[in-house]
Amino acid sequence: MASTDPTDTPIDGEGESTPTFSDLGLGDAVLKALKDVGYETPSAIQAQTIPLLLGGRDVLGVAQTGTGKTAAFALPILDQLDTTQKTPQALVLAPTRELALQVCEAFEKYAARMKGVHVLPVYGGQGYGTQLSALRRGVNIVVGTPGRVMDHLDKGTLDLSELRFLVLDEADEMLKMGFAEDVETILADTPDDKQTALFSATMPAQIRRISQQHLNDPEEITVKSKTTTSANITQRYLMVSYPQKVDALTRILEVENFDGMIVFVRTKSETETLAEKLRARGYTAAAISGDIAQAQRERTVEQLKSGKLDILVATDVAARGLDVDRITHVVNYDIPIDTESYVHRIGRTGRAGRTGDAISFVTPRERRLLGAIEKATRQPLTEMQIPTAEDVNVTRLSRFDDAITAALADQERIAEFRDIIAHYVNHHDVVESDVAAALAVVAQGDTPLLLPPDPPRRERAQREDRERRFDDDRGGREERRPRGGGQYSPYRIEVGKRQRVEPRQIVGALANEGGLRRDDFGRIDIRPDFSIVELPADLPQETLDRLADTRISGQLIELKPDPRPFRSTGGPRGGGRFRDDRDGGGRGGYRGDRDGRGRGSRDGGFRDRDDRPPRKPRH
Hints:
This protein has 4 domains: 21-223, Rossmann fold (3-Layer(aba) Sandwich); 233-388, P-loop containing nucleotide triphosphate hydrolases (Rossmann fold, 3-Layer(aba) Sandwich), CATH 3.40.50; 391-444, no CATH class; 486-583, RRM (RNA recognition motif) domain (Alpha-Beta Plaits). The protein is built from 21 helices and 20 strands. Strand 3, helix 5 (128-137) and strand 4 (141-144) form a beta-alpha-beta unit. The chain is globular and about 90 Å long. Residues 1-16, 470-480 and 569-619 have low confidence and may be disordered.
């Protein structure tokens, strides 16, 4: 049976014949590549977009992630590419390095039957040398994040003078991450006669303004998903207190028949902590977060694909764009605080028609998050219980039986060992069943095959009640402190309400340039002409030096200690404690990449940590 693109939604229609890719006007080379990978049926957005782009029209596409947008713009671009031209003909802007790499891989897959197509990913965190060498040799398509693309434009290393196609992918995400100014600047540096496609899951006023200013009489296409989560994914949840999580996960790993698994946590520090605990329990687990080098990330993902690794512990940002066939299970070890993250997370499984399982751990204080997810996805999650010791033992015995059955199938080796056992029985006067049991002990080692019974129900309920109270106390009394357990001190920066600055911009810029983490930020108070930010009292001088040239909204922040005690003025833009993601953020609180690290851009928005240093504003 022919398959569709893993992220596609096939066209539905009563009594309508479903078009094929060959009906859309694509050339033979592209069609052959699609046939090689088994794609025959285009998604709704592909069927509507491809003929328009082939016909030279600009397109404004409103579609959720997972509707097949990448093929919708990649296929017509490849079909019209002039491979003899050495300067870039197509530029695709994406909000994150993960999405940029995913788009790059798609272009290369669809260009498999074409000769001389060169696609270059351009993103922060990768050395300039590789990118500069490729640009000097000549590339046809550049896929990059706005920050690094701007760097190359400033250095004069990226020539867009002969650009024919421009794509803004997930444009609303780029705006949320603070890339608005960069995107506007890049658009202004491209030829007026280029063909432009803009794709966005939502259509805020700023996206509408950009489309009116930079697109030429675009055809607007809107594709709505029937549901936000795949029907192929079984969604369950587990009510569990915080101290129970590790044991609950271990038991789930015992009883669930999984191949590959991603376990999502909220912070980068928790990724390695949990991965280490799983390795100590005998599982092949690794951690990835937004801080790891791209080469290391690629090696880890390759190990997951090849089966050398079974469990990946990840943050949201690190797993964005990750597509591995082996992923049968997704576990939300920390339930996400927004429904969009939930949809992205569980979308790592159940792809291309395969089935998948999603299990979410929910503490008593997080019931409201569960309700929000069910309401947004319009799909109730089924409650499950922590597997009992009996459940685990049944699974272990079943696997033990399977191992014996598999060994018995190799009769040649069985015959060899039968003689050895007979020799032992004859010389030691022991019955064969005892010898078999002794061999099982040797094979099992020091780890018991079976778990002891769980405590009586009443005792277990009392323990869970104690743990639940611990959870509530933990949420109610926890006082944020900087790394190392020190104290906060107020610092003044010379941007405020007049610059329309927001807490997320302040956190993004300082975290990016100074290497600060979420726990390094206390309260943020935004005044008319300046702002007060609580930072660690023992902030190193080298960090202060790194922040000396930091700009927010194009203005130097001039960070310096403030001798006055912190007094929050409140208000809609500032004030209040800078709160942890597990509390859902606060007014004026920072809700960023949930990776424990903000991403600051020139205007203080979010961007890749290594994208580029601050630059002087253009005039």
